Amino acid sequence: LVMSLLSLDPALRPSSAGEVIDRLSAIAGLPRRDDVALGQAFLITPKLVGRDGPLALVRRRLLASRAGRGCALLVRGGPGAGRTRFLERCRLESKVAGAVVLHATAADSERGAYGLLQALADSLLDAAPDQALSLAAPDAAALACAVPELGRRLGISASVEPDELRRRRMVHDALLRWFADNARQRHTVIVIDDLQRFDDASL
After folding, report:
1. Considering the chain, what percentage of its residues have pLDDT values greater than 90?
2. DSSP codes of every residue in 139-202
3. Mean local confidence (pLDDT), 128-142
4. Which of 119, 123, 128 minimizes the C-alpha distance to 186?
5. Which H or E run includes 42?
6. Distance between CA atoms of residues 97 and 65, nearest Å
C-alpha cells in the first residue's frame, strides 16, 4: 500500500481516500466502513491558497534535479504566512517524485551544536541506512564529531581536533562529501524549516 501511494505512475496509486481506508482496514483486519466523510478527514488537507505559482516552480526544480541539475530555493515570509505548511507540501511533492527527503525543523535546533546536521543525518540514515553507512566510512571519524550515531553504528571514535574553527571546517567538508555521494546514488531533496534558528556550528 505504501509503495502504491508513492508510485510515480498515477494509475498505480489508490483512486480515492476511501480505497486507501478500505485497504488499511483489510490489512488491520477491521470491518469496512462506508463513511465518505471519514475518508476525507484522514487524507484531505485544506488547499494551499495562492501557492500555485510557487508549487509549480518547486515541481520544475524537482524535475531538473532528477536530471542532475541541482538547485536551492529559499522560502521567505513572516509569522503565520504559511511557510511550514508550504514546506510540508514540498516534502510530499518530493516524496511523490521518488526523492529521498532529508528534513529538519525548528525543534531540531534545540539539539545544540550541529543540531541541523544531526537531523539531516538521521533522516538519511532512516531513508537509506545501508547506502548511508557505506558512503560514510571514509570520513567516519570526522562525521562522528557532529553525528555521534554514525560513529556508534560504524564503531569509530570521533576525530580529536582542539581548534574549533578547524574542527568545523573538517566536519563541514566531510558532511558535504557524504551528502553529495548519497545524492549521486539517489535523488535527494533537503528541506529545512526555520533555518535562522539553527546553531552556528551547523551553518
Report:
1. 61
2. GHHHHHHH-HHHHHHHT-PPP----HHHHHHHHHHHHHHHHHHHHHHS-EEEEESSGGGS-GGG
3. 96
4. 128
5. helix 36-43
6. 11
| Axis-axis angle for helices 83-96, 52-66 (nearest 10) | 40
Cell of 17: 481516500
pLDDT tens-digit readout, 146-189: 999 999 999 999 998 889 999 999 999 999 999 999 999 999 99
As a whole number of angstroms, the distance between CA 71 and CA 73 comes to 7
Q: Quote the radius of gyration of the chain (alpha carbons, Å).
A: 20
User: Which cell numbers in the block locate residue 187?
Assistant: 535523488
Specify the 3-state DSSP secondary structure of 103. Answer: strand
In angstroms, the CA 175 to CA 136 distance is 9
Beta carbons of 142 and 159 less than 8 angstroms apart:
yes
Q: Is the model more confident about 15 or about 155?
A: 155
| pTM recorded for the entire structure | 0.75
Question: What kind and span of H or E run contains 79?
Answer: none
What phi and psi, each to the nearest 5 degrees, are found at residue 104? -140, 140
Residue 39 has pLDDT above 50, yes or no: no
